[in-house]
Design a protein that fits this description.
- The protein is mainly α and 250 residues long.
- It folds into 3 domains: 1-73, no CATH class; 79-141, no CATH class; 157-249, Arc Repressor Mutant, subunit A.
- It has helices at residues 3-8, 12-17, 50-61, 65-70, 74-77, 81-91, 96-102, 108-140, 163-173, 189-200, 211-219, 225-234, and strands spanning 19-21, 25-28, 34-36, 40-43, 46-49, 238-240, 247-249.
- The protein is elongated.
């Protein structure tokens, strides 16, 4: 793998530092030299702990973190040589007139436009980082399940149904349209929950139905309407009086 790609696989703060910290060492990202914690390192006539010495190493061996990054392969940075030179000038705090003379740019206003473009790219990069971070968080987040109805008689794994699963099941068993007829009810228990939840929406809440009224609604959905009525009650969507004189949604 390209060394530059290895560097960019690290967190932004580590890339800005130019090194990574492990349990036992500080490791330079640009040459992979490691400096062991607890040891003292000498530079000229002075002595440094590993954390300070790795920063000094980057300054002496790689000039600076900025210089090490800006000289990376342009296939990785996406920067042209001209853009790298501009960034060097900005990093070294050169005035616009100095940059114009050094890089032989047409005018000072052109330099100012480059500064403006850099700030715009920085904003765009922040937005892109935020979007990709949200994507990763969403990928790693536990799946979100549809909330079971409050009157469910027994909650178990059958109720672990995502919105995507719910839509696929409804499309499968209501092939014409959601207002159409059910193709079959001889299906898995999880699928029955999805289908029954959809059928339950056909009934008004806070209203009592006669058995005949319930049957008329269910007949339009499936020929074996008694089994639908029974399962609506069994799964806690519907309730009835003991003499079956009235039915209502729970």
């Amino acid at each position: 793998m390209n060394k530059s790609v290895d560097i960019l696989a690290n967190d932004l703060d580590d890339i800005k530092n130019g090194y990574i910290e492990t349990a036992d060492t500080f490791k330079c990202l640009f040459c992979e030299r490691e400096f062991e914690k607890g040891l003292i390192y000498q530079h000229e006539d002075k002595y440094y702990e590993a954390c300070r010495y790795v920063r000094m190493h980057i300054e002496t061996a790689h000039k600076s973190v900025f210089e090490a990054l800006v000289t990376m392969d342009k296939k990785v940075t996406g920067l042209s040589e001209h853009q790298c030179e501009l960034l060097r000038c900005f990093y070294n705090k050169l005035q616009d007139q100095q940059i114009q003379q050094r890089l032989e740019i047409g005018s000072i206003s052109t330099v100012r436009n480059h500064r403006f473009a850099m700030k715009e790219k920085e904003k765009q990069a922040k937005l892109y980082l935020a979007l990709t971070a949200l994507i990763r968080e969403n990928e790693n987040a536990p799946e979100k399940y549809i909330q079971p109805h409050e009157t469910a008689t027994m909650l178990d794994d059958r109720y672990k149904i995502t919105a995507d699963e719910n839509a696929k099941i409804l499309k499968k068993y209501f092939p014409e349209e959601l207002k159409g007829r059910l193709s079959t009810f001889y299906i898995k228990e999880k699928c029955k929950i999805v289908v029954l939840r959809h059928i339950a929406e056909k009934f008004e809440k806070n209203r009592q139905y006669t058995e005949k009224e319930v049957n008329e609604i269910l007949k339009n959905i499936f020929d074996d309407y008694p089994v639908l009525r029974r399962y609506l009650i069994e799964y806690g969507f519907m309730d009835r009086k003991d003499d079956c004189s009235a039915y209502w949604m729970k």
